[in-house]
Amino acid sequence: MSDVIISPSILSADFANLEQDIKLVQKFGADWIHVDVMDGHFVPNITIGVPVVASLRKVTDLPLDVHLMIENPKKYVEPFAKAGADILTFHYEAVNGDDEIIELIKYIKSFGIRAGISIKPKTQPEKVFKFLPMLDLVLVMTVEPGFGGQSFMSDCAKKIKLLRDENKDIIIQVDGGINDKTGLICKNYGANSLVAGNYIYKSSDIKEAIRLLK
Ligand code: DX5
Ligand code: ZN
Questions:
Q1: Domain 5-213 has what CATH class?
Q2: Is 0.85 surpassed by the pTM of this model?
């Protein structure tokens, strides 16, 4: 694995050809597959759910990095874990209170998978500092969650440095408007996992796009 974990977002892939599109990025060195789950409530868009993750599990050995942009994430932890998710990242803003967040992290880990927390652009990183020692990953959104293909918000990327100063070991992932240039900015702030949708899947040279991200 490269020192930066590349997690292509299949939101920008061809949903009628997911197996082919996953094998393509796998061949060119993708480390994880990023799966964006949206419920039409927490975000204004609806995407895919548990059955798709179960199907993807059958066609790839890459870790399935599942980004839950949903209300009441606890309800869906067991179904996603049983479907084959390897990393479950929920949103700080979707859970009420610190006790419930701690309980949810423990619950995700009870399935033997990794747990992540994500913060939207308006959420300050200090809000999640206390949870970092319990977590495997923190996901900094550099767009408002909901859609692929939006522009990178550079102010949000500065949160990465604050999180890295607070915790040296955690995986810091960044998602939204990532390309070779914005990815480098994030890496320099201390990110070690890049999600990219449009930059990879809409590229005329996917192999080169992944190479440049790495
Ligand atoms: C947005 C999703 C992202 C999205 C990124 O809410 O969480 O994972 O697919 O797409 P790009 O890389 O095109 O901004
Ligand atoms: Zn995502």
A1: alpha beta
A2: yes
